[in-house]
Amino acid sequence: MKHGLFVILMSMGAMALTVPAHAVKAEGAAPIAAKPSEAQTMYYDVYAGGIHAVKAKLDVDYGKESQYELKLGAQTIGFLEKLVPWRGTFETKGWKLGGEQGDRPELHRSTAVWQGEEELKEYSYGKDGSFKGLTVIEAGKDKSPTDLAADLVAQSTDVLTGTLEVMKHVQNTGKCEGVSEVFDGKRRFEMTFKHEMDEVLVPTDYNVYSGETARCVVEVKPLTGEWHSKPRGWMSIQEQGRQQGSLPTVWFAKVSDDMPAVPVKIRVKTEYGTLFMHLTEYTNGHKVIKAAAREE
């Protein structure tokens, strides 16, 4: 459940937050500073089988000349919160290198509380794409790995940065395409976005966005690490969708003229029903799209 929500919400990119988000941090781990005036901010509601299950907030700060910052927060709510009490934040800051080098993370941090247990993971990277280290704190205990194989971490990225590259590609070309290799602490996987079609969305009672979008599917392919012989977690969800005739699907839109495109809708089909994530509010400091009566 935890990993599935993470990848769904990251796949917005994407991308598994509160409104406002509550960060859960381990002692000594300072939060990554946010610059709301330079960021696009999105609020989302996630529905599972028609039940309002998760609230999410995504900040994309791409306004600075040489750096970028991303922050995603999420939490289960209502009936699902009682069954699956989970909340977490995922943050990345990195370098805007341009050209073929693209964007590279400097620090990625995930903090989560799952059934009362707190977990923090902090990934450090070099500007040359090297992997510097991983810190893991679980229930106040340091469980950081001391030796990570090169084929797990070398020239890997985080899932937020991988999704950002796709968002930029949509903004520049109108097409949703991109491939990244991500290390999640135990496994390395390939995350691929493929353009399906251009589609015009109209606003609904759930989603405030209206206009052209790039609709694409997201697929995760195991590479190395601790993968199970039978699909579990996100891989199980993904394969259920494949059997239902649709991989996880994301709709990206160019909401701003000069900032990366953003996810406005996500659909994940499973054998138990379909999960939807809808954009309920958007702002970039100059433009606001908001439902007439948005639940706080």
Based on DSSP secondary structure assignment, what is the total number of beta strands? 15
Return the domain count.
Answer: 1
- Helix and strand succession? HEEEHEEEEEHHEEEHEEEE
Helix-strand makeup class = alpha+beta
Instruction: Give the termini distance in whole angstroms.
Output: 25 Å
Q: What general outline do the C-alpha atoms trace?
A: globular
Residues in β-strands, percent? over 45%
Mean pLDDT over all positions: 83
Number of helices: 5
Provide the low-confidence segments as ranges.
1-37, 292-296
> Can you summarize the main beta sheet?
15 strands, antiparallel
Task: Describe the fold and architecture.
With 296 residues, the chain is of the alpha+beta class. It is globular, with a radius of gyration of 18 Å. The chain has five helices and 15 strands. It has one domain (2-290). The protein has a 15-stranded antiparallel sheet that branches.
Keywords:
15-stranded antiparallel sheet, single chain, globular, alpha+beta, disordered N terminus, 296 residues, 5 helices
Task: Please specify the SSE layout and strand pairing.
Layout: H1 2-10, E1 39-48, E2 51-61, E3 67-76, H2 78-83, E4 86-98, E5 102-114, E6 117-125, E7 131-138, E8 141-142, H3 150-153, H4 159-173, E9 178-183, E10 187-201, E11 211-225, H5 233-243, E12 249-253, E13 262-270, E14 273-283, E15 288-290
Antiparallel strand pairs: 1-2, 1-14, 2-3, 3-4, 4-5, 5-6, 6-7, 7-8, 9-10, 10-11, 11-12, 12-13, 13-14, 14-15
